[in-house]
Design goal:
Elements: H1 2-11, E1 18-19, H2 21-28, H3 31-40, H4 47-54, E2 62-63, H5 64-74, H6 79-86
Antiparallel strand pairs: 1-2
Amino acid sequence: HEQIMEIFSVMDQDESGSITIQEMAEHLIKEETRAYFECLGVDASDVWTLFKLMDVDRTSRIDQGEFIAGCMRLKGSAKGLDVAKLA
């Protein structure tokens, strides 16, 4: 979880305790951030879908709990995102 929390902190530019789609998109264009997600086995190529799958309470913001849970749920294979899309 430590690595996931580190990614969250980097993405949370305004230190609000949550990430917007804009913050996520800005960081996922950076090779360094995409590499973090790749290490977790999370497909970060589709930012909008990834964001929607993590934003379980539909507030258009992802808090730390949602982010950690989303990464854990989607990690392990690039197919995790495709499977989650079907749910």
